[in-house]
């Protein structure tokens, strides 16, 4: 029915039926009241009552039809709102469905905008990757120069070159991770299971720290999923778990729980902990609690920034195990 293909026609026809229904209902009631108060034969009253009942029935049908058309007129807008929420949450990549003639052009334009944005983000990410690759070659050459300087007996120069090469390498990794995360966060549909990432990272890290006897207790429900790209989730958790394994004496505990639209992940270790005055400082870029300790100078900052890109957060506190607790919040995935 092309007559009902637009929101305007549905609302107008619904209003017309509703008005007619109200008019007939009022006419039927007023007629019945007038006949009740007049001295007419019983048979006339019976006929009038039957007519009034028929009028009320027809009026009721028109009122119901008007309500149905009103709801049909508004439902495409409600459906569009739900679809947009799905795109924003990452469960949908496009706005699906057919809509009335007034709404469909808007939907087509929004889908075109989403496609254009996805292409632009992909190109920007590719350029960032090309830039990082182009910078790694000169850094490798500088590292070789440091080896030659050390072999020539200039250890101070070699140490200075290596320090700057390492610093530039961390900066490249940091900004490349941010560019990748922005691309993943902007692209709808980013979603992955948490347990899969934790299990893979724990196997790798436990092998790396096997000589220290560190154990990792995983308490992650297999059904929990977060709205985050797989590579970015591995980057976030990799930094947090690696940091916990380095500072732990013997034990690391990873636990995750779902709370509404948020997944809360805690990483606890039984190490020496971190003073409250230092917790904000180590979340800043390039700061470590102990510059002499092996570790990622940008690890916690990368994890914090990547979490923020996806609408999450990261905070530090005291662990029940006696060491440091890292609390990570990420939006839950609807898949």
Written overview of the protein:
The chain is an alpha+beta fold and 335 residues long. It folds into three domains: 88 residues; 72 residues; 140 residues, Heat Shock Protein 90. It is built from eight helices and seven strands, in the order ααααβαββαββααββ. A five-stranded mixed β-sheet has the order 2-4-5-7-6, covered by helices on one side. Strands 1-3 form a two-stranded antiparallel ribbon. α1 packs antiparallel against α2, α3 packs antiparallel against α4 and α4 packs parallel to α8. The protein is elongated.
List key phrases describing it.
335 residues; alpha+beta; Heat Shock Protein 90; 3 domains; five-stranded mixed beta sheet; two-stranded antiparallel ribbon
Head-to-tail CA distance between termini: 36 Å
Which class do the helix and strand fractions yield?
alpha+beta
The CATH architecture category of the largest domain equals 2-Layer Sandwich
Estimate the global geometry from the Cα principal axes: elongated
- CATH superfamily of the largest domain, please? Histidine kinase-like ATPase, C-terminal domain
Beta-strand content estimate: 5-15%
Number of H/I helices: 8
Number of DSSP E strands: 7
Oligomer: single chain
The largest beta-sheet arranges its strands as: 2-4-5-7-6
Low-pLDDT residue spans: 287-297
Secondary structure: helix percent = 55-70%
Which CATH class of the largest domain applies here? Alpha Beta
Order of helices and strands: HHHHEHEEHEEHHEE
